[in-house]
Write a structure and sequence with these properties.
The structure is a single chain. Helices cover about 35% and strands about 20% of the residues. The chain has eleven helices and 15 strands. A hairpin with an 8-residue loop joins strand 12 and strand 13. Helix 4 packs parallel to helix 5 and helix 5 runs antiparallel to helix 10. It starts with 12 loop residues before the first helix and ends in a 14-residue tail after the last helix.
Length: about 400
């Protein structure tokens, strides 16, 4: 087997052309071609919800973005708004509460609203942002029901604004390689997939509040395996699922949601993915095997940094990027240029259709058909085609 290498003398013409395409994409996306055209206006982003993800990931990422910047925040805590204004130099007029959020319609500083609340609240604020004429990024899971996903998509289409879902791993270079292998089938179609994602959770919080979260680890962690398996299937959704829940070790804590859930996804070509997600053990792995090779995310498969990944050809080593910055920069570029995002609302709805089927299978003990098993949603295939060259923004420092 040939090991990945930076030795140009041993690289094939195919590898050289591929890396040349990557470099060209990086040049284009990072603005290094600015010598030939004036720089475009950076778009203003408003973060709605100032929890840990905004505090530790999105806020710092917006210090690194090239196409957008943090212009405002929406919070239910005035003291948080004041601190963010001080830390990021925000204008006081760009600090909103959930009650006066609709006035954002009159604020030209904010072009994009990033909804970072518990999933059950995503529909309300996505729809309100769309009605205010703002483009929207909704964190994943997109919502807690397929019907709510459809409402969000319809509201954004009616308002003629763009909607993206927070699938940051579409910009991670390891996951870009997974998608490339699935598309070009160098290892053959991936027919056997396995995934395990979990962490120890021992506190009462919204993540185990069924009304707010929609479920337990399946919604919070399992969605990554669902999405990753669809990446490995070249964007195709499974046709059926089976599932079962382990007995609870902490029934008093997980009285509303599952603690550990196992499931199997089946594709029309015979491919399968066996997966587990849990709030009772720590793991983060994913593996996809074809007849000619395999790719194995051995550690930190779906995290922000530190991914350890190997293929049957050898280990993969890519320079770390800021996934969140790449995601927001690309969405801003989509808004400015009028192109489709590779992570549209239809993609979020597809995943919610799969997750809904998994929960039904677990509840009934039966094999459940996935209601939407088309190869891709309307608009998704176009977006992917336009995004066929891997995105590679400039290297970003690791988070502290």
């Amino acid at each position: 087997m040939k090991t990945a290498t930076n030795d140009f003398s041993t690289r094939s013409r195919r590898e050289f052309l591929r890396d040349l395409a990557w470099a060209t994409a990086a040049l284009t996306t990072t603005g290094l071609q600015a010598q030939t055209k004036p720089p475009e206006r950076k778009l203003g982003v408003g973060l709605l919800g100032l929890g840990r993800y905004s505090l530790n990931q999105l806020g710092p990422a917006l210090r690194e973005t090239k196409n957008c910047y943090l212009a405002g925040v929406v919070t239910g805590h005035p003291e948080k708004g004041e601190k963010w204004a001080a830390d990021y130099g925000l204008s006081k007029k760009n600090i909103y509460s959930y009650e006066n959020f609709d006035h954002i319609a009159d604020n030209p500083d904010i072009d994009i609203v990033y909804v970072v609340t518990p999933p059950a609240l995503h529909p309300e604020f996505t729809i309100r942002a769309a009605k205010a004429g703002k483009h929207v990024i909704s964190e994943k899971p997109m919502a807690t029901s397929v019907a709510d996903c459809t409402r969000m998509i319809a509201a954004c289409k009616q308002a003629k604004v763009k909607l993206a879902i927070g699938y940051r791993l579409h910009y991670d270079l390891y996951h870009r390689e997974l998608m490339r292998l699935a598309r070009e089938q160098e290892f053959g179609p991936f027919m056997k997939m396995t995934g395990d994602r979990g962490f120890l959770f021992g506190e009462r919080a919204w993540r185990i509040d069924k009304k707010l979260a929609g479920g337990g680890p399946m919604m919070d962690l399992g969605i990554y395996i669902v999405h990753g398996a669809c990446m490995a299937a070249n964007g195709v959704a499974p046709v059926a699922v089976t599932a079962y829940e382990d007995p609870k070790t902490k029934p008093e804590l997980f009285n509303e949601v599952e603690e550990t859930l196992h499931w199997t996804m089946e594709w029309s070509n015979g491919a399968k993915c066996e997966a587990v997600t849990s709030f009772n053990h720590s793991s983060d792995t994913f593996r996809a095997e074809g007849s000619k090779g395999w790719i194995d995310f051995k550690q930190h498969a779906f995290t922000y940094r530190g991914i350890v990944c190997e293929t049957s050809r050898g280990p993969l080593t890519y320079q770390a990027i800021n996934q969140q910055a790449a995601h927001m920069d690309d969405f801003a570029d989509c808004v400015r240029g009028g192109r489709d995002t590779p992570v549209p609302g239809e993609l979020g709805r597809r995943d919610m259709q799969i997750i809904s089927a998994i929960y039904e299978a677990s509840r009934t003990g039966k094999r459940v058909q996935v209601k939407s098993s088309s190869t891709s949603e309307p608009g998704y295939s176009t977006a992917i085609a336009r995004f066929s060259v891997p995105f590679q923004p400039p290297p970003a420092p690791a988070f502290e």
